[in-house]
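tokens incoming
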């Protein structure tokens, strides 16, 4: 005979995650579901159709030192199981941004994470200083997938030393929780992750888009005016899961995983690979409700499977997982010995 438990006795799972356990300013989020940078505007744009306050946090569109109007059109195109974008970081610049958005976010209960991009180490530091004590800003996400103009345009995020320099400069400029967003274009993403952890990152986030291209065979020209663009969506998911899995074996700070997530199973893959939280980008464009659906589905899945906290599933598919989240004594001990 099956005896069902009265609803009142079923404990609701705890979806809380701490993304900056080593930082006194903390980044405790009420659930691990976060819209990705560039795919959720500044939060306001979606507030009429998504209950933004239910999200774990949200990440702003990438901000740069000066205003940018972005690349010429066309700057997005669909590809099999994904999309290419070359928006070109259209944004109002750090000063215009600070005047406009954080005063609105200040009254929100959902933490706002500001994504910053720059072409010099000094500009990264300048933006971090400007944002350090702005009410309404909970944390920074440092996008190192941008060209370093002092290194001939070579991407910061492809080189461990340059990635560490940016991280250290931002660390010295602010006490805000800092998530460094890694590029999948790096030859060795593990080396980059370790470099930014050593330089003071509170967490890492991966992956950003992969550089791609599509050609219109009728015009015989690249489809995007910029020629190349960033590939995102389901097409990149296996690459992202693999990178999260590898990085989770190499760093002890929390990992935020993303790349092609559009349903519960995708999200669970990232958590089980070793991510403490997940972000959703491309899927938001076709289904803005995906974020709330993921929170509800994860809550329901945890309840049904007797999983009480997110940390119970983080890294369970990864025998050499070594993040700060204690999954089981066995895993922690194995790493301590290795
Ligand atoms: C239209 C668009 C704009 C983006 N803008 C940014 C940005 O400003 N800063 C950033 O770090 N990543 C940006 N990204 C990358 C996403 O945040 C995310 O890393 C990537 O799309 C992979 O996730 P997904 O497959 O869920 O979209 C952008 C992606 C898209 C599709």
């Amino acid at each position: 005979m099956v005896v069902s438990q009265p609803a009142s006795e079923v404990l609701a799972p705890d979806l809380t995650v701490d993304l900056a356990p080593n930082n006194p300013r903390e980044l405790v989020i009420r659930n691990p579901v976060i819209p990705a940078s560039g795919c959720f505007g500044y939060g306001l744009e979606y507030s009429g159709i998504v209950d933004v306050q239910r999200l774990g946090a949200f990440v702003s569109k990438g901000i740069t030192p000066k205003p940018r109007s972005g690349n010429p059109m066309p700057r997005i195109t669909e590809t099999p199981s994904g999309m290419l974008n070359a928006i070109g970081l259209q944004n109002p610049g750090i000063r215009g941004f600070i005047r406009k958005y954080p005063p609105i976010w200040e009254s929100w209960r959902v933490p706002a994470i500001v994504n910053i991009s720059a072409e010099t180490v000094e500009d990264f530091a300048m933006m971090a200083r400007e944002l350090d004590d702005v009410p309404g800003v909970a944390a920074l996400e440092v996008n190192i997938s941008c060209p370093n103009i002092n290194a001939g345009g070579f991407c910061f995020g492809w080189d461990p030393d340059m990635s560490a320099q940016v991280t250290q400069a931002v660390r010295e400029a602010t006490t805000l929780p800092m998530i460094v967003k890694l590029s999948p274009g790096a030859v060795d993403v593990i080396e980059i992750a370790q470099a930014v952890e050593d330089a003071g990152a509170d967490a890492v986030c991966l992956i950003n888009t992969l550089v791609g291209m599509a050609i219109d065979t009728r015009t015989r020209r690249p489809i995007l005016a910029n020629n190349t663009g960033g590939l995102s969506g389901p097409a990149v998911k296996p690459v992202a899961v693999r990178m999260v899995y590898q990085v989770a074996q190499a760093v002890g700070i929390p990992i935020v995983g993303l790349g092609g997530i559009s349903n519960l199973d995708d999200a669970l893959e990232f958590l089980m690979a070793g991510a403490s939280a997940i972000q959703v980008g491309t899927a938001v464009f076709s289904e803005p409700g995906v974020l709330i659906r993921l929170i509800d589905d994860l809550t329901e899945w945890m309840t049904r499977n007797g999983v009480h906290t997110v940390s119970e599933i983080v890294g369970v598919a990864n025998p050499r997982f070594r993040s700060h989240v204690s999954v089981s004594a066995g895993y922690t001990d194995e790493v301590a010995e290795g």
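note: The radius of gyration is 20 Å.
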